[in-house]
């Protein structure tokens, strides 16, 4: 006999906001499938819908198990995508306190997913003692934990992050789940109605024929090929290849490694550097994406992903490379990426990637108001880094700005810079903006060409 989705009671776990703040952790560019509706966060994970909410003293959680054709506890029916018009669901069944087995499993899942055994307040104390800049900014950004996500999901999500922003990455990941992931259930609210929720697709689901073409049609651009090719490679390597790159001290989320079949582990005693190099062999994976996967999917806490925001932090707050104007126009090549990571590892130690995530979040425009209470920040992020270069009109007649990277329907990379020019009585101001929360963009030189004024037509001050 078919039964409807089974919904547990709300449970609560003692949790201070200094140890975990879900409103910050779940929207700072780590995970892209969590949705906040009213005061609750929802996401599918390990075959269930997790719902979270938080107050000053507790993390509250609830589990919704998908519709089954057998009694709870028996094997679930195959999960399939819903039709375009969702059928009326069977009546929900609220679990009772006797449903301890499932509740214990969810608590274990949350403990692993949020890395709860690690004392975050102790880490903040250590970083603040070692770094005055961290001590100045951290009070406004407590409770930011690095998530322990499935390695396969982290890999695909951060391939999507290349030259992209958080909102668009979230949209891409949602489309991946809707079109290729198993249907788990729906959320229903008074404000947004019903929304179908799918789990993350497996490598085999994204390794089939026609995936690249469909993803291009869905707006993935050049990333479509990377995702399809990487899925084929991971699927062929077999079960456990990705988790064979995992930090042995960091348990995987729910077991499994993101692959089909029975592959061998690539290294019986993996290291961070070995994991990073192995990931670089995959299509669409550069140093920054590899470090994101190492940090948030494989448990290497020392990994420091370096994108434009982290480069800005390094040059502005830590005077990396001299901190001068010239340091802002370098391309983020592999050598600079590694040097910045080593610099921060020297300051913050073995959990450098965790500390970096706090300052990264503080540097996002979407958290600018929150940053007001935690030291000075220039609100970079969703609306981009803004630089102004001023030229005297006497010296400049014509300004030519080369703008790099324009995304076309053919799948080229997106525009990374926007430039405008305004002329005042004595000045020409050239404003160059990095597009909103764009990751992996080379910090390219913006070339400004000036020609001498003609003798026949001089510019008067």
Automatic annotation (TrEMBL):
GO terms for biological process: base-excision repair, AP site formation; nucleotide-excision repair. Residues 65-104 are annotated as: Disordered. Its EC number is 4.2.99.18. Pfam families: HhH-GPD, OGG_N. Residues 78-90 have a biased composition (Pro residues). InterPro entries: DNA_glycosylase (IPR011257), HhH-GPD_domain (IPR003265), HhH_base_excis_C (IPR023170), OGG_N (IPR012904), Oxidative_DNA_repair_enzyme (IPR052054). Coiled coil: none annotated. Residues 160-357 form the HhH-GPD domain. GO terms for cellular component: nucleus. Transmembrane segments: none annotated. SUPFAM superfamilies: DNA-glycosylase, TATA-box binding protein-like. Belongs to the type-1 OGG1 family. This is DNA-(apurinic or apyrimidinic site) lyase. It comes from Coniochaeta hoffmannii.
């Amino acid at each position: 006999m078919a039964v409807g989705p089974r919904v547990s009671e709300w449970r609560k776990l003692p949790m201070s906001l200094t140890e975990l703040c879900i409103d910050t952790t779940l929207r700072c560019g780590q995970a892209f499938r969590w949705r906040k509706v009213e005061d609750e966060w929802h996401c599918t994970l390990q075959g269930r819908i997790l719902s979270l909410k938080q107050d000053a003293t507790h993390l509250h959680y609830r589990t919704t198990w998908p519709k089954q054709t057998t009694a709870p506890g028996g094997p679930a029916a195959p999960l399939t995508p819903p039709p375009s018009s969702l059928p009326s669901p069977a009546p929900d069944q609220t679990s009772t306190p006797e449903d301890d087995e499932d509740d214990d499993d969810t608590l274990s899942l949350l403990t692993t997913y949020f890395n709860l055994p690690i004392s975050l307040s102790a880490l903040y104390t250590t970083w603040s003692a070692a770094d005055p800049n961290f001590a100045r900014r951290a009070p406004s950004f407590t409770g930011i934990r690095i998530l322990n996500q499935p390695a396969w999901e982290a890999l695909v999500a951060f391939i999507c992050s290349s030259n992209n922003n958080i909102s668009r990455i979230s949209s891409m990941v949602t489309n991946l789940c809707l079109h290729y992931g198993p249907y788990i259930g729906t959320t229903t609210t008074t404000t947004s109605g019903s929304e179908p929720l799918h789990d993350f697709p497996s490598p085999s689901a994204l390794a089939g024929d026609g995936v690249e073409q469909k993803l291009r049609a869905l707006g993935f651009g050049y990333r479509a090929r990377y995702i399809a090719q990487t899925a084929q490679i991971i699927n062929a390597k077999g079960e456990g290849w990705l988790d064979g790159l995992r930090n042995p001290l960091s348990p995987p989320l729910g077991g499994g490694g993101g692959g089909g079949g029975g592959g061998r582990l690539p290294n019986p005693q993996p290291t961070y550097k070995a994991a990073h190099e192995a990931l670089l062999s995959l299509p669409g994976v550069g140093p920054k994406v590899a470090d994101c996967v190492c940090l948030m999917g494989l448990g290497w806490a020392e990994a420091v992903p370096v994108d434009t925001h982290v480069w800005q932090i390094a040059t502005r707050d830590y005077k990396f490379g001299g901190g001068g104007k010239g340091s802002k126009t370098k391309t983020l090549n592999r050598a600079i990426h590694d040097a910045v990571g080593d610099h921060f590892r020297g300051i913050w130690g073995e959990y450098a990637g965790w500390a970096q995530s706090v300052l990264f979040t503080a540097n996002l425009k979407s958290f600018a108001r929150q940053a007001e209470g935690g030291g000075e920040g220039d609100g970079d992020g969703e609306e981009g880094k803004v630089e102004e270069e001023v030229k005297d009109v006497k010296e400049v007649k014509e300004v030519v700005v080369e703008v790099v990277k324009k995304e076309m329907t053919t799948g080229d990379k997106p525009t990374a810079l926007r430039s405008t020019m305004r002329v005042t009585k004595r000045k020409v101001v050239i404003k160059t903006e990095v597009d909103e929360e764009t990751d992996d963009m080379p910090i390219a030189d913006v070339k400004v060409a000036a020609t001498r004024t003609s003798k026949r037509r001089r510019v008067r001050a």
